[in-house]
Write a structure and sequence with these properties.
With 334 residues, this protein is α/β, with parallel strands linked by helices. It is 37% helix and 16% strand. It has a single domain (31-330), classed as Aldolase class I (TIM Barrel), CATH 3.20.20.70. It has helices at residues 21-26, 64-77, 106-118, 150-167, 181-191, 212-218, 238-250, 264-271, 284-295, 301-315, 325-330; strands at residues 37-43, 50-52, 60-62, 81-86, 123-128, 141-142, 148-149, 171-174, 198-205, 254-258, 278-282, 319-322. A hairpin with a 7-residue loop joins strand 2 and strand 3. Helix 2 packs across helix 3 (106-118) and helix 3 (106-118) runs parallel beside helix 4. It binds ligand PBG and zinc ion. Zinc ion is lined by residues 129, 131, 139, 175-176.
């Protein structure tokens, strides 16, 4: 018997829609472009100077001046949003993370400089968390028994957010995973007249080994213990929906799932229960793994980066926070 097309069940031929590049583009469902990308920045407590991050090739820590230059360049590529992570002056870390609420600290200074130079052309978001500023490296305050205390941490986080808002931040991004911090921050911002400063909440943040390179960069590793009593257990997904809905109820404007690639199912789950914009954080370890394999010639970086970013969007992320943003746009990978 000859193999005749009409013998195919239902005569379905999906390959018709894959025959040429133009047809594939025509029926493509998912796009990623500069409008939806956020570039993270590590900010040093200095005016000048930069530092390399050995585990994150292509990413620098920058003092204020090189930061401004970098952001100007990135704006030229279409990157209109930054997420700032600060590092305090040497020797200033303490148990409650005091340098985090210094109105003349690293992040407030950077925010002021960025808003002065770029105004409304740039959306400035700041990470709000204590771990880079506490001597113990935890995201909240710790009691004598080594317990990370929830409610006493809220005031510090709200103060930190207000200091960033005072400096001119457009959005603050709490990444600490204390219960009730979105509401505490919303209340503090509103009480201080910052009604229009938004909250991009790290709503669904798992205790992940993929944060390793970031902790080197931000010098924010806990000196004792782990973050498992506040960040989420990656065996759970119903809890992700619960956290997302709580943050929405507490007043978050944008929700986030973090990390991204091993959590595409979570992105999809959260997307189905919220009308808020959803961000995915393509974290440091996900970046470093791709860079390391690409450096060895084991992966085609351009194609892998595009595939990863598209996958996050396909899963339901509206916004992508990714260290790949600059290079992907510069090289035309998207
Ligand atoms: C601070 C914070 C972390 C990241 C973002 N904010 C580290 C952590 O929770 O240990 C991770 C980002 C990345 O890995 O790129 N709480
Ligand atoms: Zn933290």
């Amino acid at each position: 018997m000859t193999n005749h097309p009409t013998s195919l069940p239902g005569r379905e031929r999906p390959r018709r829609l894959r025959r040429t590049g133009a047809i594939r583009d025509l029926v493509s469902e998912t796009m990623v472009g500069s409008d939806n990308l956020i570039m993270p920045h590590f900010v040093l407590p200095t005016e000048t100077g930069t530092g390399e991050i050995p585990s994150m090739p292509g990413i620098l820590k920058n003092g204020i001046k090189p930061l401004l230059d970098q952001v100007e360049n990135d704006l030229g590529l279409g990157i209109k949003t930054v997420m700032l992570f600060g590092t305090p002056e040497e020797g200033t870390k303490d148990p409650v993370g005091s340098p985090a609420v210094d109105s003349n600290g690293t992040v407030p200074r950077a925010v002021k400089a960025l808003k002065e130079r770029f105004g409304k052309d740039l959306i400035v978001m700041t990470d709000v968390c204590l771990c880079a500023y506490t001597d113990h490296g935890h995201c909240g305050v710790v009691n004598n028994n080594g317990v990370i205390e929830n409610d006493p941490s809220l005031k510090h986080l709200a103060d930190m957010a207000r200091v960033h808002a005072d400096a001119g931040a457009d959005f603050v991004g709490p990444s600490d995973m204390m219960d009730g911090r979105v509401q505490a921050i919303r209340d503090e911002l509103d009480a201080r007249g910052h009604n229009d400063v938004g909250i991009i909440s790290y709503s669904v943040k798992y205790a992940s080994a993929y944060y390793g390179p970031f902790r080197d960069a931000a010098d924010s590793s806990p000196s004792g213990g782990t973050r498992e009593s506040y960040q989420m257990d990656f065996r759970n997904s119903r809890e992700a929906v619960r956290e997302a809905l709580l943050d929405e109820a507490e007043g978050a404007d944008i929700l986030m799932v973090k990390p991204a690639l091993a959590y595409l199912d979570i992105i999809k789950d959260v997307k189905t229960v919220t009308q808020l914009p959803l961000a995915a954080y393509n974290v440091s370890g996900e970046y470093s793994a791709v860079k390391a394999a690409a450096e060895r010639g084991w992966l085609d970086e351009a194609r892998v980066v595009r595939e990863n970013l598209i996958a996050m969007r396909r899963a339901g992320a509206d916004i992508l926070i990714t260290y790949h943003a600059r290079e992907a746009l510069k090289q035309g990978w998207l």
